Amino acid sequence: MDLSIIIVSYNTCDLLRDCLRSVFACLYDVPFEVIVVDNNSPDDSVAVVRKEFPQARLIESPVNGGYAYANNIGLKVAQGDHLLLLNPDTVLPQTALQMMRQFMAEHADAGVGGAKLVLRDGSLDLACRRGFPTLEVAFYRLVGLSRRYPQSSRLNRYNLGYLDPDQVAEVDAVVGAFMWIRREALEQAGLLDERFFAFGEDIDLCYRIKVEHGWKVYYNPAVVVTHYKSQSMRKDALRMNVQFYRAMWLFHQKHYAQRTFFLLNWLTALGILGLCAVALIVNALRTPSRRKVGL
Prior knowledge:
Blueprint: E1 3-9, H1 13-24, E2 32-38, H2 45-52, E3 57-60, H3 67-77, E4 82-86, E5 90-91, H4 96-106, E6 110-118, H5 135-142, H6 145-148, E7 169-171, E8 178-182, H7 183-189, H8 201-212, E9 216-227, H9 237-255, H10 262-285
Parallel strand pairs: 1-2, 1-4, 2-3, 6-9
Antiparallel strand pairs: 4-8, 5-9, 6-8, 7-9
Helix pairs in contact: 1-2, 7-8, 9-10
């Protein structure tokens, strides 16, 4: 098996259908498998996969254990030499798999590859290529300097806005909505950290693959994927906001806290707690359709 595609589904039945249609319409001249892990969805996701996509392997989780938990279920049974984590709210062009496979073949040092993700309006999904959220990088982003000076290589290192979105680039991390992983790199770094429920697990995995095991992470804009972002998360914005800011602290605690002055660790924890509180208040004042994750 050359490629295993793992799709975690939770309460996004119609989007999942469109995603799977696009996957099975892709041109790919070697064997690949599609593994759908349903995270105990309350909608008809399971029935749709079973009826309309019998060629996909369906695994039903008895609980919603989170994104990392469900992806790990798929990764443990995947047989491919290459692994693609794919969100159900994405749509692939026909050439996506072939082009990404060729890119990985041409970049033997790549442990992870990501595509250019665009939102429904055609704009770039800024999360598709990122720098690691060190204290300095996170500070510039949280106080708004990265948005004020998007072309600054110092102030906008989190979303890498100073890079040409149409040029191949080595980056720190790509988003888990479309994350192509070389099996050898994953075997060295280990599975996703299940302490991350719905955010941060992709950056954490990229950190382990790149920093701890010496592989490179690439952004490949030749592959353009449509991303209908955060559709399921808006239905549970309260809990997702808590998980979003919890992931910030968990990543800092895991990778940076031990080499950071303890007062800065305290300030970081207070800052994240404060941002979470503000986000919860702001979302409580919004109508359900306008709620979002993060500020």
